[in-house]
Amino acid sequence: MGVESLYIKIKEFNHIAVVELNRSPANGFSRGFLMEFIRAIKKVDEDRSIKIVIISSKQSQIFSSGLDLRSLMGDNADEMSRNIFDAVHLVYKIVEKIMLSKKIFIGALSGATIGSAVSVALACDLLIGSPETWFWLPDPQYGGLLADGGIDLLINHIGTSRAKMLALTNDRINPQRALEWGILYRVVEKGKLLDVAFSEAKRLSGYSTDTLSYTKRLINEGILNSFKCDELKEILNNREIYNRLQNYIKL
Q1: Residue pair 238/84 in contact by the 8 Å Cβ criterion
Q2: Is the pTM of this model over 0.90?
Q3: All domains of the chain, ordered by start, with CATH?
Q4: Helices of type H across the chain
Q5: DSSP category for residue 16
Q6: Beta bridge partners of residue 90, listed in sequence order
Q7: Is 104 helix (H, G, I), strand (E, B) or coil?
Q8: Model pLDDT for residues 124-181, shown as the tens digit of each residue
Q9: Distance CA 196, CA 109 (A)
């Protein structure tokens, strides 16, 4: 199976699907990109021949910069608020689809993983990184809110204290710390990232599909709360965010 769209390519190799993100320069989450992403996840989820899904990036230095805030700014604060709200809700749907899927998802993180891309990555069942992989939640800097399920996943992955360290401080987390904290399953040479991800996928595809699916469901049960609609609206209705975003996207 080979399915191409503007930003995402899906390929299948013996029960393993690779969902490759390719929106230059940084796989930013524009509305169009997110709609394609949802369709891609739905497609691999509904394909009974697929057991394992790898999400990777065509961009060599980055997995994703998260929301493409520049494309979501609009002409005024009200339009910006609507655009960002819709985009965050779409990310939540992607996170939810990955977590509820019977397939096992492996994230191959080639580099920077920022904002809502962290949420998508944490929704995966295993994450493999390289020495160039790092994580960053810049919401405090530009006045946003990780209302897409990312906070729930952070707490589950690394606990409340460490979740606060990452979500409140604007600090960047390097691959060594991410490995120590249990965010990353493995850190491998960058040139071998996809090969290792595929090797792990091949190994898992030889196991009991039902056992993997039910185990995933039991582990994920109760982790993801409902979409933080009211909290996000309150944040976006604060006029300060428009000014902060204008300064942020100039960096």
Answers
A1: no
A2: yes
A3: 2-248 (3.90.226.10)
A4: 31-46, 69-72, 77-100, 116-123, 139-142, 150-169, 175-181, 193-205, 209-220, 229-236, 240-248
A5: E
A6: none
A7: strand
A8: 999 999 999 999 999 999 999 999 999 999 999 999 999 999 999 999 999 999 999 9
A9: 12
